[in-house]
User: Which sequence fits this backbone?
C-alpha cells in the first residue's frame, strides 16, 4: 500500500485498484464504503466445490467417458476458448434473454481478462481509441493504459443521456485523426455511479455505433441485481447489427475466487461473419499467450453450479439481492435523515440495483480528504475523481454498499454526515464554501 | 484449428500454441509426440480438491479465524500478489535450494502469466529487447510478439555453450541501438531441445548478465524431472548480484488445471533494493488489470497439497518421474534400433530429464511434412522450425515423450523411422538427398 501511494497524496490511476483492495487494512476501525466486493454472507464453498462433481458427471455422460477419464481431462490443459461454453450460453439465454452459440464465447479469468483481451484485439493501430462513459470502472482505465490505448471520456448530458455527447465526442476524435474502435459501458447499475441507461438512449447508442463500426463492450457485471422496476433489455439483446460484445462474470453472482468470466462476440461483426471469426481467433491467441486457458477446475465449479440450478442464477442470487436491497434502503434512509435538510449542493442518486451510489458534494473531495475521513471520522468513502478520465468529478464520491451490514451502513453514513457538516461549518467560517459551490 | 492455420501450409508463430493443443483432434489415430502435456496417470483430482481443506485449516490457525471465516476469505477477492507465498517460498527452499521471502513472490495464472508480466514490465521503451536461446519455448515468442517486444535469438556454440554467443549477440544489438533487458532460459531440460546448460556456462552467463544489467528469466518448469546425474544448481541459487527472476509452475508437478505459477524477484535488482520493489509493484499492478488475482481456490489447492507434503514435491512427483524416465529409455532404445545404422546426418540428444528430445535429420522437415507424417504414417512430430527465431532449425524435430505409454513410444518411433527411411530412399532416387545434407 505505502509503496504504491505514499501518503495517498499522489494516487496514480494504476494504483487505485490495488488501493481498493488494501485501504481497509490501513484503517481497520473505519467503516468502509470503498470496495465493491460482494457480500460473503451467502458464500457456500463446500457446496460449490461439490458442484465440480456435478459437472464431471455431465461431462462424462456427454462424451461417453467414465468419470475417472473425465477427472483426468479436467485436470489437463484445455481448449483456450473454454470448456463450459454451452452451459454459459444456456445461462445467458435464461437470465439475460441473449441467444448465442458456444463458439461465440471465450471463457476468461474473470471479466477483467475478457475486457483486457477485447481492448488489445480491437486496438491494434496507433491512434485507435476506446470510449468510456465518464467516470468509469477503474479496471478499464488500467487495462487501456497498459495496452497503450487512449481512453476518451463520454460525459452524460444534463438529462443523463449519452447518445448526444457520444456523437460530439466521436466527431472531435475524428477531427484529431483518431479511429474510434469501441465504447465501454455498464448499462445496468454502473460502477462507479449506479446509473442505468434508458431504453431510448440504448437504442440511439446502438444505431450510432452500428453506423460507425464502433464495437460496444457491454459489461453485464451487476445486471442480476435489480431491486425494483422493470429490467431493461441488454444492449446485446437489442443488437441486430453485430455491434455488441457482451462481457460477463460469475464474481458477483457466485464469488470472486472462481475467476471465471466470458466474452460473447456477435456471430457477424457489423454483418461480417469472417470478421467475427477473425476477432475470436485473435482474442483466443492472445489469451493463450497470457494465461493459456482458464482453470478447468474453476470452469467445472461454475458449470456444475449452473447445471444444478437449471442454467439460471436467478434463484441462487435471491438472498444476496435482498441483502443489497436492504443496504440500499438503509443508505437512502440515513442519507435523507442526516443530509436531507442540508444546504443545496448535496445530492445523491437512487440506484435501482447494483452495488453503488454516488453523492455530489458542495466542495472538492480528494485523496487527502478521504484519509482525513478515515482517520478522524472512521469512515472510508471513495473520491469519484479516482474513477474519472478528466477533472469533472472532483465534487463527487462513490459509496459501495455491497459488503456491509445494515447497521454498518447506518453508522457509516452518520459518520460521513458528521464529516460533511463539520467541513461545511469550517468552510463557511473561512469563506470558501460559497465560492466552491458556484 | 482450420480457421487458424488453413491446410497447415502457413503456420503463424502465434498459432503454434493453439496448434499444439488441437492437432491431435485432427488425427485421432496418429501417435502424437507433439504436445508436452504431463502424463495424466497420476492425477488425483479428489485428493487435490480435498487439500483445499488442509489449507483452510492452516489459514484459520495462522490468522485465528474459524474455518468458516477462512472459507469466506478464500472465496473473496484476494491480494494481487498472492495468498500462498510463504508456502511457495518454503517449497522452493526445500526442492530447489532457493532462499527468498514471501514478499519477493508474485503468484500468477501459471508460468505463462509470470513470463508475460515480466516481459511487459522489463520492456517499457521502444528498442528494448529480450534474448532467448534459439530455438525456444513458443510461449515466450508469443508473449513477446503480443507485447511488441523484439525477441533476439542466441544460438548455442558448437560445444553447446551460450556465454560466448551471448556476448556477440549483445554487442551486435547494442550496435543497432537496442537496449537488452532480459534473457529467457530453461536451463534444465529445455523446451524444445531437452538440453541442459553446464555449470561453467551458467556461471559465465550470470557474470555477463550481471555486468550489463540483463535480467535472466529462469524458467524452472522441468527442473523436478531429472532422470540421472547430479542436479545442476539453479541460476537463481548461484546469483549473488540480483540478476535472476525465477519462474515456476505447478502445471507439471501437480497438473495444468491448477493454473498456478510464480515469479520470484531478487531482493535487490542488480544491488538496488528500490528497483526491486518498483519492479514488483509494477508487475503486480499489471496483473491487477489483466487477471485481478490468481484464483484463491486454486492457490488453496496447491497450498494444501504442499502443506500435506511437508512443502516439498519430491515424493509426489516420483511416480511421474519414473514414468517419464521409462519413456525416455524406450525412446532411446527404439531410435537406436530403427535409425542407429542409418546414413550420417541423423542424430539425437540424450536428455537427462524433462519431456523432450530433439532429432536432427538430413533433410528439411516442415509443416507440410508433419501433415504427411500424420496422415500417411499415423505419427505426429513437431518441426523444430515452429520453435525457431530464425531459419536455422529447418532440419530438426522435437519429440515430446511425456504423455504416451511405453508401447506408444515404441510404435510411434517405428512409424517415424519408416517415414524417414521412405523419404531418404525417395530423395536418393530424385537426387535431392546429397544436396540437402551438404
Assistant:
Amino acid at each position: 500500500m505505502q509503496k504504491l501511494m505514499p501518503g495517498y497524496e499522489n494516487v496514480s490511476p494504476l494504483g487505485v485498484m490495488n488501493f481498493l483492495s488494501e485501504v481497509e487494512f490501513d484503517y481497520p476501525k473505519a467503516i468502509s464504503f470503498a470496495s465493491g466486493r460482494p457480500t460473503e454472507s451467502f458464500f457456500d464453498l463446500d457446496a460449490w466445490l461439490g458442484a465440480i462433481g456435478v459437472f464431471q458427471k455431465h461431462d462424462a455422460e456427454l462424451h461417453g467417458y467414465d468419470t475417472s477419464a473425465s477427472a483426468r481431462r479436467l485436470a489437463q490443459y484445455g481448449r483456450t476458448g473454454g470448456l463450459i461454453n454451452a452451459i454459459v450460453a444456456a445461462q445467458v439465454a435464461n437470465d439475460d434473454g441473449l441467444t448465442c452459440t458456444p463458439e461465440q464465447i471465450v471463457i476468461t479469468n474473470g471479466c477483467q481478462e475478457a475486457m483486457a483481451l477485447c481492448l488489445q484485439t480491437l486496438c491494434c493501430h496507433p491512434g485507435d481509441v476506446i470510449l468510456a462513459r465518464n467516470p468509469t470502472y477503474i479496471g478499464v482505465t488500467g487495462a487501456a493504459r497498459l495496452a497503450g490505448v487512449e481512453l476518451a471520456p463520454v460525459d452524460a448530458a444534463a438529462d443523463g443521456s449519452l447518445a448526444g455527447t457520444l456523437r460530439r465526442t466521436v466527431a472531435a476524435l475524428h477531427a484529431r485523426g483518431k479511429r474510434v474502435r469501441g465504447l465501454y459501458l455498464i448499462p445496468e447499475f454502473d460502477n462507479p455511479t449506479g446509473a442505468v441507461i434508458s431504453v431510448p438512449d440504448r437504442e440511439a447508442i446502438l444505431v450510432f455505433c452500428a453506423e460507425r463500426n464502433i464495437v460496444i463492450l457491454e459489461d453485464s457485471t451487476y445486471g442480476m441485481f435489480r431491486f425494483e422496476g422493470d429490467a431493461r433489455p441488454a444492449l446485446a439483446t437489442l443488437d441486430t447489427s453485430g455491434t455488441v460484445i457482451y462481457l460477463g462474470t460469475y464474481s458477483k453472482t457466485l464469488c470472486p475466487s472462481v475467476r471465471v468470466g466470458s466474452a460473447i462476440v456477435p456471430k457477424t461483426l457489423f454483418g461480417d461473419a469472417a470478421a467475427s471469426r477473425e476477432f475470436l481467433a485473435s482474442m483466443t491467441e492472445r489469451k493463450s499467450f497470457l494465461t493459456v486457458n482458464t482453470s478447468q477446475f474453476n470452469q467445472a465449479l461454475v458449470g456444475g453450479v449452473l447445471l444444478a440450478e437449471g442454467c439460471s442464477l436467478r434463484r441462487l442470487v435471491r438472498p444476496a439481492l435482498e441483502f443489497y436491497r436492504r443496504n440500499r434502503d438503509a443508505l437512502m434512509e440515513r442519507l435523507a435523515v442526516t443530509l436531507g435538510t442540508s444546504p443545496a449542493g448535496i445530492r445523491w442518486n437512487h440506484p435501482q440495483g447494483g452495488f453503488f451510489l454516488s453523492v455530489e458534494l458542495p466542495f472538492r473531495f480528494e485523496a487527502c480528504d478521504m484519509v482525513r475521513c478515515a482517520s478522524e471520522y472512521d469512515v472510508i468513502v471513495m473520491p469519484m475523481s479516482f474513477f474519472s478520465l478528466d477533472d469533472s468529478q472532483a465534487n463527487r464520491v462513490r459509496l459501495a454498499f455491497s459488503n456491509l451490514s445494515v447497521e454498518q451502513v447506518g453508522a457509516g453514513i452518520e459518520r460521513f454526515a458528521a464529516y460533511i457538516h463539520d467541513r461545511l461549518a469550517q468552510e463557511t467560517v473561512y469563506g470558501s464554501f460559497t465560492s466552491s459551490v458556484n
User: Anything to note?
Assistant: The first strand of chain A starts at residue 31 and ends at 32. The radius of gyration of chain A is 22 Å. Residues 31 and 408 of chain A are 7 Å apart (CA to CA). DSSP finds 15 helices and 13 strands in chain A.
